[in-house]
Design brief:
Blueprint: H1 3-26, H2 56-60, H3 75-94, H4 100-120, H5 125-142, H6 147-167, H7 174-187, H8 191-213, H9 225-251
Helix pairs in contact: 1-3, 1-4, 3-4, 3-9, 4-5, 4-9, 5-7, 6-7, 7-9, 8-9
């Protein structure tokens, strides 16, 4: 693996992560993600370029606005760093090839949807629908041989979570259903371990919440989108290996 290519993709990830922070903040508010430029959420002052360097500026400013001193959420550097690590991880595990035109946007969509669902309890159509369209377009261009598999996986993941949402409407929303369908369009068969990982992680967190808060846990709704995003990243990085391991252990 070319270390230079991985490093460049990590740098790209940091830059994309900075843009994803804009998406996470503005899309739920119905605002443009293009203009105006980055501003302090407290005083509204436009940020100078040197105050808008991903990760670095937040650290140097100690997480506060230079002008009004308001605390800036640690979500900003975390999203930037996570996107950088995820982009590099995709390059290391999947290789640097034409498939990146689908894989990297998929990573970005998962992180954005997870961030929005965590803060606002929604998975917006403004991300999921274009993401699904791009999955089909990219597959048709760079991996046309897998297109039937991807379409079936997308439909299957959508239908599977739709059944869960109909049975447990308080624990699963239609945004989660659409996100699962989009994941299938990118992952294909590995969407199965993605969903399993999502439900396992969600169940573990649910148990922790119940232990910590007892009867009050029912009032602490935990969004499922971040767990789907986690499962999607796991499957993108290790899905084929997980399927092979399962097949060797139980079907071989």
């Amino acid at each position: 693996m070319d270390a230079i290519a991985v490093a460049l993709l990590a740098l790209l990830g940091v830059a994309v992560g900075s843009f994803l922070n804009v998406v996470i903040h503005r899309v739920p508010l119905g605002e443009s993600i293009v203009s105006p430029g980055s501003r302090c959420p407290g005083c509204g002052t436009a940020l100078k370029p040197w105050d808008n360097v991903p990760v670095v500026s937040w650290v140097l400013l100690r997480g506060r606005c230079r002008f009004c001193g308001i605390a800036i959420s640690p979500r900003y550097p975390l999203v930037e760093a996570l996107t950088a690590v995820a982009f590099a991880g995709v390059a290391l595990t999947r290789g640097v090839d034409d498939d990146l035109v689908a894989e990297l946007p998929f990573v970005a969509l998962l992180i954005a949807c997870a961030g929005i669902d965590t803060e606002h309890r929604i998975v917006p159509n403004r991300l999921v629908v274009p993401g699904a369209v791009w999955a089909v377009v990219a597959a048709a261009v760079v991996m046309s041989d897998r297109l039937p598999e991807l379409l079936v996986a997308g439909a299957g993941a959508f239908a599977g979570l739709l059944v869960v949402a109909l049975i447990q409407p308080r624990g699963m929303g239609m945004g989660d259903v659409k996100l699962a369908g989009m994941m299938g369009l990118y992952l294909g068969t590995p969407v199965i371990p993605a969903l399993l990982a999502a439900f396992l992680a969600g169940s573990l967190v649910g148990v922790v919440v119940m232990v910590r808060h007892g009867a009050g846990a029912r009032k602490r709704a935990v969004p499922f989108g971040p767990f789907l995003a986690f499962g999607g990243l796991v499957a993108l990085l290790f899905g084929p290996q997980l399927i092979d391991a399962y097949s060797g252990a139980f079907l071989g």
